[in-house]
Write a structure and sequence with these properties.
Shape: globular
Strand content: 5-15%
Strand order of the largest sheet: 2-1-3-4-5
């Protein structure tokens, strides 16, 4: 088995790697510390499974998964995150991941179970994620679920906007024009039924989406 582990915190990455080596002594395990490294290694190697952090430098998780799936549709991706599942889980499962695990509640046994499910072509769903996925199947989102209607790109902009980044910074980060950022902002405001930045930031705080 060939596994790629990606995390920008060296100690966390080392801990995951050592645990995997204990359970898969014959496996080859590579390391990536940002999304750029992740994509380069995928271009150069054939992996059975990728275990990746959700937030790393030089890219974003949604774009990275789209690129990975475009190159190798059947590649199994397990996401490890400090974020509440409600923030990312639905959109990442739609992009094709096999499991979404929270770092604070995941031990090596659960990670091994997730890998086993993924190898067999199954999704590994923890209870917190199951609840979020169930809510996402509703035809209409409630007041507390409006952010689930945002596309992956819209949600990335939402996160940047609520973190205080200027239009020019967002445009440069995503390689788009200021006009495109403005257009996305309008779509986000309409979908969330929000009319100003103060309300946007308040919503992000109330929904714990600003972590």
């Amino acid at each position: 088995m060939h596994i790629l582990v990606a995390d920008d915190h060296p100690m966390i990455l080392l801990g995951i790697k050592r645990s995997l080596m204990d359970n898969y002594p014959l496996a080859k395990i590579d390391e990536a510390y940002d999304f750029e490294d992740l994509e380069k290694l995928i271009d150069q190697n054939h992996y059975d499974c990728i275990i990746t952090d959700i937030s790393m430098p030089k890219g974003n998780i949604c774009d990275a998964i789209k690129k990975i799936k475009k190159k190798s549709h059947n590649l199994k991706i397990i996401v490890l995150s400090m974020y509440n599942p409600e923030i990312y889980a639905v959109r990442l499962f739609k992009l094709g991941i096999s499991a979404y695990l929270t770092k604070d509640n995941t031990g090596i046994k659960e990670l091994v179970n997730a890998i086993s499910f993924a190898e067999n072509g199954k999704k590994y769903i923890i209870p917190q994620v199951a609840e979020v996925l169930a809510l996402s199947l509703q035809e209409k989102y409630t007041e507390n679920q409006r952010h689930l209607s945002l596309s992956g790109k819209e949600f990335e902009l939402f996160k940047m906007m609520t973190s205080g980044k200027k239009f020019s910074e967002i445009a440069k980060s995503l390689s788009i024009t200021n006009a495109a950022v403005s257009s996305y902002k309008t779509k986000i405001f309409n979908k969330l039924n929000i009319h100003n930045y103060a309300a946007l930031i308040k919503y992000a705080i109330e929904m714990k989406l600003n972590g």
